[in-house]
Amino acid sequence: MGDIMINQRSEGIVNNMNGYVYHILGCGAIGSSAATQLARSGAENFTLYDFDKVSEANVGVSQYNVPDIGKYKVDVLQETIYDICDNPIILQVRDKFIDNCQYLPYGNDIIVLGFDNMSSRLDAVQIACSVKRLKPVILIDGRMGSQTYQQYAFVKPTVAKYLKYWY
Prior knowledge:
Layout: E1 21-25, H1 29-40, E2 45-49, H2 56-59, H3 73-84, E3 89-93, E4 109-113, H4 118-130, E5 138-144, E6 149-155, H5 159-163
Parallel strand pairs: 1-2, 1-4, 2-3, 4-5
Antiparallel strand pairs: 5-6
Helix pairs in contact: 1-3
């Protein structure tokens, strides 16, 4: 690709996408969509956390397709990002973030919560915000219901800030 600039339309608006490492916690509907849109915006440095495989239920609401069923979400999402970006740096974690948070920090981390349950979100926030070396620069919490989508962004997040919007 070399000479192709896929995010040319946003040039001058967002020029520092590669200044961060994007930790996608949960690679289902929210996580897969966030990761692909970040890649299309110029981000190339990802850590993908998910232990699950693509199922039929994922196809209608996420970035996965029927041929992906049965494959690990992190594997398919990595390939999708490779198809979008020239030279992405991707670390896959086929495990729960709660058990494998040692992949943080780089000092310029953005965490995207893509879990499908609130207790996992809170557990991850408590870990990421309570351990000084893990503190992300930004925490983005996307929540999807049957007919709604909400997104919260916390700059220099704390557990107290997060709890104000948890439910």
